[in-house]
Amino acid sequence: MSQEVGVKKNSISRIFIYLFLIVSALLSMFPFYWMFVMATRPSSAFNSLPPTITPGNMLVENFKKVLDQINFFGAMWNTVILCVTVTLVVLLISSLAGFAFAKFKFPGKNFFFLAILLTLVIPPQLGLIPQYYLISKAGLLDTLQGVMILSFLNPLGIFLMRQYVSNSVPDELIEAAKLDGCSNFRIYRSIVLPIILPAFATLGIIVFTAVWGEFLWQFTVLRDPDMYTIQVALASLSTGYKVDFGMILSGVFWATVPLIIIFLFFNRLFISSITEGAVK
């Protein structure tokens, strides 16, 4: 009898958990759905009462307005180049640094690691003026190189990689590889890298989406419309006395689609990096 009561309680609690997850998922997806709805409606629907929650038929028309105002595909291409380059370089530097901090002993190791972590608490706005001065002196204004070069060193990425390597790569495996005559880079390439691929996916998604959505630094460095990223290009749509919300949200919607595709493509690795705690 007690077992049946326990089974019923577990079933009821499981139902409530699933209902909570379903409601949370719907609430999380609603802003994206509302953005899509506004992208298919005229600008007047933005302030309508009651709010409009059903899609209209102006998605193509609104997007044509975007194409008339900005070089949308050129800005998207610049953003893809920027995000892919920064993501690949951050993954390489962060994994190498994380491997070194996790498995090697060298003078000042703890000091340097603490100094890297302390940079996480510094607001990026505080470094805007000196960073702009350095980029201007280097002649990198109005270039994608000027936007990306300061993003290559990622303190969060180094911390995540260091923690993942520490927990997933046993010291005995490193020592065995050294006894076999492997160099440090070969150990990284042949042993560490295959193990930390799920962490690569997680960090890659974080960096890619962060660079894609960053605006302040890109807006500061880029002035040539031909070099605009998608965020700066979309910001130029709202200049003037009258704002066409349907047009703007149409551009935002199509600019968000690549991020959704990237997340869905790496979703399995992203989840495995969170749940995985053992060595493959």
TrEMBL record:
Its main location: membrane. PROSITE patterns: ABC_TM1. InterPro entries: MetI-like, MetI-like_sf. Keywords: Cell membrane, Membrane, Transmembrane, Transmembrane helix, Transport. Residues 76-266 form the ABC transmembrane type-1 domain. SUPFAM superfamilies: MetI-like. The keyword ATP-binding does not apply. It is a multi-pass membrane protein. The chain crosses the membrane at residues 15-36, 75-99, 111-133, 139-160, 191-212, 245-266. Belongs to the binding-protein-dependent transport system permease family. This is Cellobiose transport system permease protein.
